[in-house]
Write a structure and sequence with these properties.
Elements (H helix, E strand, L loop, with lengths): L1 H27 L3 H4 L3 H24 L3 E4 L3 E3 L3 E7 L6 E4 L2 E4 L1 E4 L2 E7 L7 E9 L2 E10 L5 E4 L12 H11 L20 E3 L4 E4 L4 E4 L3 E3 L6 E3 L4 E7 L10 E6 L4 E8 L1 E2 L6 E2 L4 E4 L11 E7 L2 E3 L2 H4 L1
Parallel strand pairs: 2-9, 10-12
Antiparallel strand pairs: 1-3, 3-7, 4-5, 4-8, 6-7, 8-9, 11-14, 12-13, 14-22, 15-21, 16-17, 16-20, 17-18, 18-22, 19-21, 22-23
The chain binds zinc ion (ZN).
């Protein structure tokens, strides 16, 4: 048994050696692929797999892209606070068919305050963030803010004053600003020391029609000529006068706070700033009045994210 076994082993060894030499020769001549040799790929494969694994590990260690939400359920008129880490450039965040540019807040760290319009239908939605080939989705909920509905009856014959193209165009272009610099730091202060007279978000139906508008700000019952203060640092993006066509908004100031956050002051009697001025928190910017469509002296204060009106109280609390 022993000699025959030896013989077979020798024979097998010889065959293997010959085959190996033949394969080496084929490889050297670059002919292996033409012969469809099964052994060749198995020898190469582990090396490729190893290098791929190494690459995947090093990429992951360098930039673990991820999105987090401060809250996954917010009310109408509020916003989702979206943080993205590990990104090389400003990601885009999508909500309810609209996209929002996230702003740089640190090393590879970005943030977007995504507004939920006050008349958004309550229910389930998705927040999606995207940059390069990366994408992440988080399911979210919009809750009904249960703001009261005002039923307003207007005499159809009564001619109502409509906003001019000038005020619509100038205000909407200021709302489109996406300033990379963040001027406002920390919490806002109130722009008036007067008592609040009407909260944000009260929904309105005209002549028993659908609820299709709402109060886009917070009102203060300030006396004629009482001071209006900047609630946070910013840059004056717009001033408009009633006599120059701001017939609905009246004398107006709009402040850009950076990162697509802005605030607006309406019905003023006096404006102390001009477009391009830098303002600081607590600085007097104007005086309360009743210019434009206003039943009496008051300050209307609105806050906007990416041009969408959100509750000013969110920035003060
Ligand atoms: Zn108002």
């Amino acid at each position: 048994m022993q000699p025959s076994e030896n013989y077979i082993n020798k024979k097998t060894f010889l065959r293997t050696t010959i085959l190996f030499s033949f394969l080496s020769l084929l490889t050297a001549l670059n002919l292996a692929s033409a012969f469809d040799i099964k052994q060749a790929p198995t020898e190469v494969k582990p090396q490729v797999a190893q290098s791929q694994a190494k690459a995947a590990v090093s990429v992951e260690a360098a930039a673990p892209l991820s999105m987090t939400l401060k809250k996954t359920a917010v009310q109408q008129g509020q916003y989702f606070e979206v943080d993205i880490t590990g990104a090389e450039k400003n990601p885009l965040v999508w909500f309810n068919s609209e996209s929002f540019l996230a702003f740089k807040v640190g090393d590879k760290a970005y943030k977007a305050l995504v507004p939920v319009e006050n008349l958004t239908k309550p229910g389930g939605y998705v927040i999606l963030a995207r940059t390069g080939g990366w994408e992440e989705r988080i399911p979210v909920k919009v809750l009904d803010n249960r703001k009261p509905i005002q039923y307003i009856y207007l005499d159809p014959d009564k001619s109502s004053l409509e906003a001019t193209n000038k005020e619509i165009n100038e205000i909407s272009s200021a709302f489109r600003l996406k300033t990379e610099e963040k001027y406002a730091q920390g919490k806002f202060s109130y722009p008036s020391t007067a008592v609040k007279s009407s909260p944000f978000g009260v929904k309105r139906s005209y002549n028993k029609g659908p609820v299709d508008s709402y109060h886009k700000g917070l009102d203060f019952a300030g006396k004629m000529g009482s001071p209006v203060f900047a609630p946070a640092d910013g840059k004056v993006a717009l001033t408009g006068l009633e006599k120059d066509g701001f017939q609905v908004h009246g004398n107006t100031i709009l402040i850009d706070h950076g990162h697509a956050l802005s605030s607006i002051y309406l019905h003023l009697s006096k404006i102390d700033v001009k477009k391009g001025d830098m303002v600081t928190k607590g600085q007097k910017i104007g005086e309360v009045g009743h210019t434009g469509i206003s039943t009496g002296p008051h300050l209307h204060w609105g806050t906007y994210l990416y041009g969408t009106s959100v509750d000013p109280e969110l920035f003060v609390k």
